[in-house]
Amino acid sequence: MTTTAFTPHDLAGTTLANRIALAPMTRSRAGAGGVPTELVAEYYAQRASAGLIVTEGVQPSVVGQGYPFTPGLHSQEQVAGWRKVTDAVHAEGGVIFAQLMHGGRIGHPSLLPDGLTPVAPSPVTPAGKLFAGEGLVEFGEPKELTADEIRETVQDFARAARNAVDAGFDGVELHGANGYLIHQFLSANANLRTDEWGGGSVQNRIRFAVEAVRAVAAEIGASRTAIRLSPGNPYNDITETDVEATYEALVDAISPLGLAYLHVTEATDAFRALTPVLRAKFGGTFVLNPNTEGPTDHRALPLLDEGAADLLAFGALFLANPDLPARLATEGPYNAPDPATFFGGDAKGFTDYPALNK
After folding, report:
1. Which residues are 144's β-sheet partners?
2. What is the DSSP track for 154-220?
3. How far apart are CA 182 and CA 185, in angstroms?
4. What pTM was computed for the model?
5. What letter would DSSP give residue 101?
6. Of 83, 74, 89, 68, nearest to 36 (Cα)?
7. 125, 140, 336, 345: least CB-packed within 10 angstroms?
8. What does the longest C-alpha to C-alpha distance in the chain come to?
9. Residue 83's CB: how many other CB atoms inside 10 A?
10. Quick one: how far is CA 276 from the chain centroid?
11. Residue of 283, 272, 356 lying closest to 322 (CA atoms)
12. Active-site residue set
């Protein structure tokens, strides 16, 4: 099958072998101190035939951790651990970006050193529960960030981005989606601030996202900086108002920077009409994680031929099929994703590459 999906793409000066991306997905396989393990290196190297790999969410600071056994990029031990991962991916010819994800209010004190509490734009407890290692726990009220702490958090992203480059990553993607800290600032129910970082206006709600992107781009270069957005996504108890105005303003603010790419994930069909608007406004490489019924497979590839995106990001199907680009080219067969084995170091069904190819 000849399709745009299997032609190279120039990503801000880096040639991608194809237009298929591994979407960022939490794996919870880090070792002590949030250091990536050998299993992490194996997992990403197995999927290096993707044109672009985006890692699981990586916390840019200690307080940014939202889930158990997730990796960080705020210590030298973590940098050394990630170097083994990037070396393994590059040895297989892959390109890999680190996703910087601050959990914000999505977290729990039991995951943090003594005395630390999850932080957020406002002290609003999210609905729902969190798996914190010993089972499900209730979310607690997060600590409201002061204006000075917000500025320091922006710099945490920049420092983590520098650490990512030192660890050999080809770039970083800021996680501005799925109800985590950047998305919380965009939200109407998580951000109740009355200052310049909220205040009910679109320009104030997008300020944190814009400043974080600018800080990272200034630190490592815009050509190695990207952001992921999920307009209208209610995940993690997020409510958004003025969705179109908010995301159009955000993309207008960052598009002049010349970023590596904009990554949009369609959480629902409700705002699908916004996707081409954001693509046109951004102007650069556009990565799309489309909303599909069931795991996204070869039936989504015409989106590339039609120009809806420059790259397509695949999630669950890539967990079960490390050689997914080859399987997409032949329209299957595919191993069926098994959610029971998605997380943790015992997820052997998704790391035993030879067995999957039998």
Report:
1. 120
2. HHHHHHHHHHHHHTT-SEEEEEE-TTSHHHHHH-TTT----STT-TT-HHHHTHHHHHHHHHHHHHH
3. 5
4. 0.95
5. -
6. 83
7. 336
8. 59
9. 16
10. 20
11. 356
12. 180
Q: Is 96 helix (H, G, I), strand (E, B) or coil?
A: strand
CA-CA-CA-CA torsion for 244, 250, 252, 253, nearest 10 degrees? 160
Pairing of strands 286-289, 136-138: unpaired
Residue closest to 180 by CA, chosen among 289, 288, 253, 107: 107
Measured N-to-C along each axis, helices 243-254 and 207-220 cross at an angle, to the nearest 10 degrees, of 20
Enter the tokens of residue 18.
């194809």
Residue 308, phi then psi, degrees to nearest 5: -70, -25
Q: Which residues pair with 226 in a beta bridge?
A: 173, 261
Tell me: the pLDDT tens digits for 303-326?
999 999 999 999 999 999 999 999
SS3 131: strand
Distances (CA, A) of 194 to 150, 188, 269: 14, 12, 32
User: Which residues share a beta bridge with 171?
Assistant: 97
What b/e sequence results for 42-71 when a residue is b if at least 16 CB atoms lie within 10 Å of its CB, and e otherwise?
A: bbbbbbbbbbbbbbbbbbbbebbbbbbbbb
Q: What pLDDT is recorded for position 352?
A: 33
Q: Locate tokens 């030879």: which residue?
A: 354
Tokens standing for 98? Answer: 């680190």
95 with 19: CB under 8 angstroms?
A: no
Question: What is the tens place of the pLDDT at every residue in 15-40?
Answer: 999 999 999 999 999 999 999 999 99
What is the residue whose two structure tokens read 């035993």?
A: 352
**Identity (one letter) of the amino acid at 319?**
L
Distance of alpha carbon 49 from its chain centroid, rounded? 19
